[in-house]
# Entry
Amino acid sequence: MSAVPSWPRLLATTAAVLLLTACGTPVVNPVTGKTERTVMDEQAEITEGAKAHQGVLQEYGVLANPALQTYVNDIGQRLARLSHRNQLKWTFTVLDSPEINAFALPGGYIYVTRGIMAYLDSEAELAGIIGHEIGHVTARHGAQRATRQQNAGLGVLAATVFGVLFEGATGVQGAAQAASQLGQTVAAGRVARYSREQETQADQLGAEYLARNGYNPRNMIDVIAVLKRQEQFVTDQAKAQGKPVGGGDSWLASHPSNDQRLADIQRVAATYTGTYSDDFQGRYYKAIEGLPFGDSREQGVVRGRHFYHEDLNIALTAPQGWEVRNTAEAIVLANGAGDAALIVRLVPANAGSTHEEIIRNVAKPTDGRAEKRLVNGLPLTAFAGTRRNSNGQAVALRLSVVTGPGNRNYLLQYAATDATAAQRASAGLAEAEGSMRPLSAADKAAARPYTLRITPMPRGGFAELARLSGGVHSEARLRLLNGVYGSGQEPAPGAPVKVIN
Ligand SMILES: [Zn+2]
# Structure
């Protein structure tokens, strides 16, 4: 959860509908040189991109690391200058998100998350990802998608201008962090995907832009391999936990395998025969050293069944067998069956100044009664009643408002799939609510976010490296982080490697 209440804000993009003619105007595609009919000419790309850019910055937040922003922007500008659309004004941003993601907006807006940067191994690989995203823009993939949807009579929701989640975007930061998983599912529904052909073209353009800038185009292969290892890791973790692999609406279920992509890009890279520069691993490691890993201080951290937020000075603990998910919008304490949850949100200041006012304004009950008490010293108002749903039917409503440290108000909503589930989970829900507290000294110690560091590979290998990370992160994850998951390879003792502590 962000320290800034975010739930009333919608991405500008999801609401904005382009008013466009059905037939479209002809434009020349800068990459292919062919004329295509479009509902989104260059000016529209720039206008819509700029609008959506503000939404992205709000939704994800910009990583507060000027040195890293400058580093990434410099690489991006160099690649863009030698791209097919060097006249565009390009903007490169590192987002403060643990998601493994990179995407583009029409008009020249490119994003990489700190989450994906942790798994890359050199400047050349980062350039490969940025080059791929630049390729989506130069080849007008967002505009093509908007046009296709318009022609199919779907209208052009500006959500379609969103870039794809970069193919490794499982967002799974480890089994313990179901939070990201939920956030990712939500994101996946919002983000339009490019076609297989567009992805292949973006990979090819990525390789081309690498070569034009003196980086070895083979780094594009390495980037797809990073994503492929992520896929393997997630599959293995799910199997080990006896969970279904790629079931439901997960990314793995909906996404074509990276195998084909890998084969395609290997063929493309083989056609380049120039001499290329170093991959600049040293420069890259220096840039990412000290990055937060997983949840950051600003988002609050999940540790097992506990949630800690230093800036808000609150902690929550889920009952045994439940799990905690931390999303941008809310903290969700969900039961094992997944049919009941306590949803905790920060209340925006304009929602009311008293608990009663907040309940009236936010929940809009038709009737019910409120009861005041203290939870760990914090004033709480519990409300049980009914409200009308969008069909006009009366539905049960159960929630509490708690005033936390700093006079910030929280809404604790009792959510369940039906009345029976609510009944079954009532003790757990009450326990979850009763755990809300200001941070104790022990909580504060546990609230420290993880940091990515560079260290010489110890003689004891990954077992020793896992000990160096306090035993919190598995050997498997450290292998994944260092690009050798599933390969059986080991970096030589003394070689710089990534560790989390
Ligand atoms: Zn892509």
About this structure: The radius of gyration is 24 Å.
